[in-house]
Design brief:
Elements lengths: L7 E7 L6 H6 L6 E6 L4 H10 L3 E5 L5 H11 L5 E5 L3 E3 L3 H11 L5 E6 L7 E2 L14 E2 L2 E2 L3 E5 H5 L19 H11 L4 E11 L10 H24 L1 H22 L4 H18 L19
Parallel strand pairs: 1-2, 1-4, 2-3, 6-11
Antiparallel strand pairs: 4-10, 5-11, 6-10, 7-9, 8-11
Helix pairs in contact: 7-8, 7-9, 8-9
């Protein structure tokens, strides 16, 4: 079950990420294969990135698939035993891969293993509900879930589980948010292990994967999908009424802020409107259809 550079493939889903993805790629050892799924269908981006890096294959999606579906598309192309899911706005530290490899040599079994965020104020994992404070460990330790911006999947082990078939590792109903929590929950339900490696550090820019010139449109999309995904996740695992109870406070908060900002702040008003609409669409059972209204110019896609 040990990871090596030869049996590891990195999968990165990008969307207008040219401003940050190169720092991510350069932090990955050159002898590790990388598959980039570009959700903006930018042919120029594909040509440039494959020409610049010998270890990269870039696949263009015909539409904006989101994170879960984009990762599933990339995972279908992985021929190695392990796949490292990375966001384009992450940067590995110099010894991150080596520390993960060392850790994998000493673990009896795992389905997911992940590096730790270099800022301990914002842990990229959740502990078991029985634990109130994070462990101060040097060695890898079990966690309940890890954030989706950096996680290594043990594909061979996960593929042996009955609940994961046809490369459907991530639930494709999620467009954005909580697809990683859903995956980790299903892993836990199969009594499989998820580990954090404290010596393997990673930097995450956070909401920085898309070019800043599209920031407002992306912010609207994020807010819509945050409420949609929250309701859908809870409905899927705990039922409609429990989901409703958990989500209503956030919905009412969004409505209150929409009313408050309406007279003087058009942008914030719209943001909270989108948040509320995401909730309403989820309650009505509608799909996560909203996409950012961004088009590639002819010059960009030439």
């Amino acid at each position: 079950m040990s990871i090596s550079r030869q049996n590891l493939t990195v999968v990165i889903v990008s969307f207008m990420s040219d401003n940050v993805i190169h720092d991510c790629i350069k932090s990955i050892p050159e002898d590790i294969k990388i598959i980039v799924i570009d959700n903006s269908n930018n042919k120029l981006f594909k040509d440039r990135i494959e020409k610049q890096y010998d270890n990269i294959t870039c696949l263009l999606s015909s539409e904006n698939l989101g994170m879960g579906s984009g990762n599933n598309l990339g995972l279908k192309e992985v021929s190695t035993e392990f796949a490292f899911i990375l966001n384009p706005d992450t940067i590995l530290k110099k010894n991150t891969i080596d520390e993960i490899i060392k850790a994998s040599n000493n673990l009896p079994s795992f389905s997911i293993i992940a590096p730790i965020l270099d800022d301990d104020k914002f842990p990229n994992y959740k502990l078991s509900e029985k634990k109130e404070t994070p462990p101060n460990y040097i060695d890898p330790y079990k966690v309940k879930s890890v954030d989706g911006f950096a996680m290594i999947l043990n594909l061979k082990r996960i593929n042996s589980l009955n609940t994961f078939e046809n490369y459907q590792y991530f639930d494709e109903n999620f467009f954005l948010y909580l697809e990683n929590d859903d995956l980790c929950k299903r892993i836990n339900e199969n009594n499989e292990n998820i580990y954090i490696v404290p010596k393997a550090k990673i930097k995450h820019l956070g909401a920085g994967a898309v070019d800043k010139k599209y920031a407002y449109e992306i912010e609207l999309t994020r807010n819509w999908h945050w409420l949609w995904s929250k309701f859908y996740f809870n409905k899927k695992h705990y039922g409609f009424f429990k989901s409703l109870i958990k989500s209503l406070p956030t919905f009412f908060s969004a409505i209150s802020k929409y009313i408050f900002y309406s007279p003087f702040d058009k942008k914030k008003k719209e943001i909270y409107l989108y948040r509320a609409l995401g909730f309403l669409n989820a309650v009505l059972g509608k799909k996560s259809y909203l996409r950012p209204k961004i088009k590639i110019s002819d010059q960009e896609n030439r």
